[in-house]
Amino acid sequence: MVASKKNLKATKKFEKKHLKGVLERRKTVAKIKQKTQIKDKKKAKRATDDEFFKGAAGEANGDKEPVKKVVKPGAKASEMSVDDFFKGGFEILDKAPATEKKAAAKLGKRKRGQAEAQKDGEASGSESGSASGDEVVDSGSEDEGGDLSDDMGMSREAMSALREKDPEFYKFLQENDPEALEFDENAEFSEIDELSGSDDEGEQPKKKQKKEKAADAGELTQTMIQRWSKTMTETHSLRAARQTVIAFRCAAQLNEADEDSNQKYTITDPNAFHDILTVALKQIPEVLNHHCPIKESAAGKLYVNTESKKFTTLSMLMKTFASSIIRLLGTLSDEATLKLTLSALEPLLPYLLSFRKLLKVLIKTVVAFWAQTASTPATRVTAFIVMRRLVVIGDKGVREVVLKAAYQGLVQGSRHTNANTIQGINLMKNSAAELWGIDQALGYTTAFSFIRQLAIHLRNSIVNNKNDSFRNVYNWQYVHSLDFWSCVLAEHCSPLKEAEAGKESQLKLLIYPLVQVTLGAMRLIPTALYFPLRFQLMRSLLRLSRATDTYIPLASVLIEVLNSAEMKKPPKSSTLKQLDFAVNYKAPASYLRTRVYQDGVGEQVVELLSEYFVLWARNIAFPEFALPVVITLKRWLKDSRKKSTGNKNGKLGGALVLLVQKLEANAKFVEEKRAKVDFAPRDRTKVDAFLKDFEWEKTPLGAFVVGQRKQRAEKQKLMEAARKEDAKKRKEAEQDEVDAAGEEDEDEEDSDEDVDLVNGSEEDEDEEMEDDE
């Protein structure tokens, strides 16, 4: 029993790890043996035929001239003896009877190469009507097209994969069948030549085709590219498209040393490199659309007939062109060329939906350019257009891949946030938010899973509050993720969007969980060090509340900041710069208890409180809504005036006094308006319509908020100008340091030369002294 169990385990282990490889090797060896046997048989048959014809020729040149029997068209094979049939010399007739041609057509399937050879009048086709027609069919298939797939050899990918995965088997093939490892550059495009020749170019003489192929090989020139471009423009030639794709692949692999030896074209002229990129990117999609047109269904969906013969033949051309574009994107640095290359992908997307593996690589590449903060806005917008196009025309699987890749790219691209990258991050959030509204059913499932993941991180940080677990929440990626989902819900759950769609948005159900996760993240670490993070998340919730008309209690979050020890105690004087709360989620320790930090926090509190209350400035319940906050602010101002422990910051106190006045003025304004109404509070329709048509900017609080926004915009412009000036001075200082270092190096070189000269003079003096001695 023990031995049988061991054998069973060994068998399962062998089946799991080695069985598949062994079976593949056996199949390959069997194919090689079969192919070798077929070749041996054909060689033996050829040798027999050669001996026979040589013997016949020897008898003809000998002393006794054999009797030559000529078979007439009406003669039958049954009227002759066997010896006469095999010994006789047969006269090859120019034209065979129609009945004999029909009989020859039934002898088997002929391939295209044999048919073309017969049209050209080759000898193999003329023997098709004889009694030895079977032999003629075999020889024709052998010479013209019978072993076409065998002669093609292996593709480069298969050869390299075999070399890496199974070097022993690769060595075995080298020793026993080296022809199986021969690489044919044009093997993957062989069917395109046949299709191109039968479609729009007609049949060309073989000598002319050979001359063209010989002329196309070698150095890539502008003349060749112009000829291909002209042919594709006039006749949409697939043969020219094939040559263009091969040359484009060589251009994409130009900087790869390992591939240089296997390339069909060498590119040394920069003008030729530029021309082949331009021609391929602009004209190959046009040729594909001509032969495999993109159709639109009744539902407005774009599709390509993937079951057609042309699509099957051109599939290798499409995959090669797309993979070359992906490889080229990794080597480009010029923004104009990069934008052109990305835009060339858009018309190819309907053709690439059938190639899932290639499409996943393409999505990752495009998303990387979209999420790269170093790219220009034009390049990132072009990459986003490709992503959006995939979501529109793709099926559910493709859409899900694009949405997940976009979110991951956003998270990775927001890792480093500063004044230089914040605009690019906002561009990503605003553009990606559009993708979740194209298919809201799929958008809901993906958004729910990602928001749930954020909630799990928050719960783990609360439950396991040790070893700095809060850092899983307090980082830029988490903050930007919450802000991004507020952008998504604000864009697609607004009343205007729902009115246009005629139904309630499916994403509206995600507002509550997102608000709960955001409020929990705000209060995770309620210290003054993370007040900037609280303000960041506060702005996200304000955007969501403003766009969706959803009430979110946020006043208490800001009152907690005023009641903290940081804001109650008198500040210390400092010479630090004002902290930019837009690009910081954590205040440096040197800012704590300083007047600069306290003034900045006070400005943020006043701004956010005014932005929060202005959302409900036209609401009929505004006086009752603002009363608790007004009382709390007055109490805080009263406590700050105490001489012993009060806050002597007059700037903050004055800003809060002004805010209280505006809140009271707006409450009085609403009370005056609602005193004239004639409906009860239970009439919800009229309550919601109260001051609905009144512009919020004309309310007392609204006018105050508009003025504050203008002041902040001007202040932001001044700060941006000062930051650019500092960056310019820093670059100039760095350049001066580099120049100074270069001058020092030159001085050192001069000193070295002087030392050499001195040493040389000392050696000369020593030699003179030796000569004197």
Automatic annotation (TrEMBL):
Q: Where is this gene product found?
A: Nucleus
According to its UniProt record, what is one Pfam family this protein matches?
Answer: Noc2
Q: Where is the composition biased (Acidic residues)?
A: 135-150, 191-202, 734-773
Record keyword NAD present: no
Task: Cite the record's Basic and acidic residues compositional bias ranges.
Answer: 113-122, 715-733
Which BP terms does GO give this entry?
ribosomal large subunit biogenesis
Question: Region Disordered: what ranges?
Answer: 34-67, 101-157, 191-219, 715-773
Which segments show compositional bias classed as Basic residues? Answer: 34-45
Lineage, top-rank taxon, reads Eukaryota
Residue stretches of biased makeup (Low complexity): 123-134
Alphabetical UniProt keywords: Nucleus
Naming one, the record's GO cellular component terms include:
nucleolus
Where mainly found? Answer: nucleus
Q: Which InterPro entries match?
A: Noc2
Q: Which family does it belong to?
A: Belongs to the NOC2 family.
- What is the protein name for this chain? Noc2p family-domain-containing protein
Q: Which organism is it from?
A: Schizothecium vesticola
